[in-house]
Structures are given as C-alpha cells and as structure tokens.
C-alpha cells in the first residue's frame, strides 16, 4: 500500500515509494498567518502614519496621504484594517498557489502549480535541475515539462528525485544552447520573434500568466525560453539544435 507525506512537511521522505514535495510547514504557517496579521497591523498604522507625514514640508501624493490621515473614526479604522487583512490574506494564498508542488513515485511525476495538475512518466524525464530558485524538469525532447519556484532546500530536492531514479543534474545540461533574444536577429523565424516581443511586453506589464502562456507557445514552435535579468534567452529543443544553428 502506498503512503504519502503531507504537502506541508518540512523534509521530503519516501514512504511506500511516494514522496510529496510541497511548501515546508514552517514557511507555510508564516505565510498564511503572518501575511494577514501584517496586513492588519499596517491597516491600523496607516492613518496615524499618514497624519504624521502631512506635517512634512515636501510630500508627494499629498492629497491621497491627507485623505488616509483623515480616517480617524473607529469605523473608518476598522475598514482600513479589514482591507489590510484581506490584502495580506490574498498575498498569502497567491504565494501558496504559485509555489510548485510535486508528487514523486518510481513510475511518474505529478506537478501542481497555477491551479493546474500535470503528470509525466519517469521514463520520459531527461533532466531535473535548479535554475536559480526555480526547479526545472525536462522531457525527452528537452522541452520544459515544469518550471517553478520550490521552497524545499536543494540538497533535499536532489535526494528525493534521485531516490526515485530521476536524472538529477547539478546544472542545465542544455545551457550552452541558449542565445539572448535580439529582435529581428537571424536564427529565429518571424513567428517566434513576434511571440517573444509579445512576451517582453507581458513581462514589462507584470502579466505573469500571459508570459507563461507565451513561453508555452514558444515551446510549441520548437524553442525553450528562460529569463535572466531583464533579458529573454532562447534555445531550440535539443533534437532540433542542429537545424536551428
């Protein structure tokens, strides 16, 4: 009978050949409790802080700050505090949803992120590695099956994947194939340049969902995209590397 470890467990351990990697319990409690409390405290502190700031000789957004400082009645303070509490809760829930969660067995990998669950057979995984703070899993074509921030420490991640026979790598085995995207530069078809231009706009406007969708579109065209600083980098799928150089 297969058993599983809790998603919130701080250290991943195999039980019955199943390992569940999720948000460490201590960090999860800090986020889900700490952020709403912080939002509540900020909501309480904002009106007095705004009243103090209005005494400064030079003050940007003076009208808005003056308005916040005028909220001194108990019911107004309660509303501001409630808004802070809700904002903190939303931030906490978003952080939890955005964080990558994984379930490993000797046969398959199940990934949950952005309210989406995907499954891939272990035999199809060609590499697993960390790219900065993001965990990346590549399939047999070098396509990114999953990419996302994971809170488990790197040594524990490596130990968990290796215990199930997954090919953990210390670095991206295809790193040498990446090129910085330059609009209109040779090496990419016009369609790919258009997608990367749209993705650049999505990143600039902080529309993360659109940026993810456009990265998926690029993979459909035969290219993997990664971000480094403010630049976009691309590479062909490993099987197509020779045809795109």
Task: Describe the 3D structure.
This protein has 245 residues and is an alpha+beta fold. It has three domains: 18-23 and 99-163, Roll (PH-domain like); 25-97; 175-244, no CATH class. The protein contains seven helices and ten strands. A hairpin with a 2-residue loop joins β3 and β4. The longest helix is centred in the N-terminal third of the chain and has 29 residues, at 25-53. It is extended. Mean pLDDT is 81; it is low at 1-15.
How do the helices and strands line up, and which of them pair or pack?
Elements: E1 18-21, H1 25-53, H2 62-69, H3 74-98, E2 101-105, E3 108-113, E4 116-121, E5 125-131, E6 134-139, E7 144-149, H4 154-163, E8 179-180, H5 190-204, H6 208-221, E9 223-228, E10 231-236, H7 241-244
Antiparallel strand pairs: 1-2, 2-3, 3-4, 5-6, 6-7, 8-10, 9-10
Helix pairs in contact: 1-2, 1-3, 5-6
The spatial strand order of the largest sheet comes to: 1-2-3-4
Strand content: 15-25%
Number of contiguous helices = 7
Distance between the termini: 50 Å
- What's the overall geometry? extended
Give me the secondary-structure category: alpha+beta
Q: Give the mean pLDDT.
A: 81
Task: Record keyword descriptors for this entry.
alpha+beta; PH-domain like; 3 domains; 7 helices; 245 residues; four-stranded antiparallel β-sheet
Could you give a quick summary of the protein structure above?
43% of the residues lie in helices and 22% in strands.
